[in-house]
Design brief:
single chain, mainly alpha
Length: 215
């Protein structure tokens, strides 16, 4: 058996043993089984965030003192999922409870469309926590739609300065992402209106109003 094959066998056995020790709630926000990678002779576990649309991975090298550290994982969860979600996870018994009781609800109700639909009329209030990625995208979709802003506004220097000063790691989606989400919201809204019209049993009157501008 070659040295590389022997090393792979040992690493795989090691991960099976370690996974039994990964009970911290923060592990629930990443794929259950990390990738095993080798970089210049150094072996590492690569944990991928399970949030929709997030491709971030956290790497932990096996032969370093912080091989079991969850510090970087917690930093990412706070940024990606939100501090409130992380605090709720910390109150759970273990990662299994977070996966079964907390995350399903977030993935079900925390999407871009759900965040958009939750917004209602009434007094404007502001949260004391930073937006999650889904909430940021929902707010930007609403803003560019209502204010007729260009999608490219998110690349504007002044806008980025306002959003990132004091929190340089704050997530801002690309113009392409906002464009895609606007089309998604439009398609979902059109489907809902069509369903409402099909199910409505009464009559509906459509009136066209012409406004003549005078100089």
């Amino acid at each position: 058996m070659s040295t590389l094959v022997q090393t792979n066998v040992l690493v795989n056995k090691n991960i099976e043993r370690l996974m039994k020790e990964w009970t911290s709630p923060v592990y629930a926000f990443f794929d259950p089984t990390p990738r095993i990678i080798e970089n210049d002779g150094w072996w590492a576990h690569e944990f991928r965030c399970s949030a929709r649309g997030c491709k971030t991975t956290i790497r932990r090298y096996l032969d370093k003192k912080d091989a079991r550290s969850t510090g970087n994982m917690r930093k990412h969860v706070k940024l990606c999922w939100g501090n409130v979600v992380l605090q709720a996870a910390d109150d759970a018994k273990d990662a299994s409870e977070v996966r079964t009781k907390i995350i399903p609800g977030i993935l079900r109700d925390g999407s871009i469309t759900a965040s958009f639909e939750r917004k209602g009329k009434g007094k404007v209030t502001y949260s004391n926590r930073q937006h999650t990625r889904a909430e940021t995208k929902a707010e930007l979709v609403r803003w560019v739609s209502e204010s007729l802003q260009l999608f490219e506004i998110v690349k504007d220097r002044g806008f980025q300065s306002l959003m990132k000063t004091g929190r340089p790691e704050y997530y801002l989606p690309s113009p392409t992402t906002i464009s895609r989400d606007v089309r998604l919201i439009f398609a979902r809204t059109r489907q809902r209106i069509a369903k409402m019209l099909r199910e409505y049993e009464g009559k509906i009157n459509f009136t066209t109003v012409w406004v003549q501008q005078t100089e």
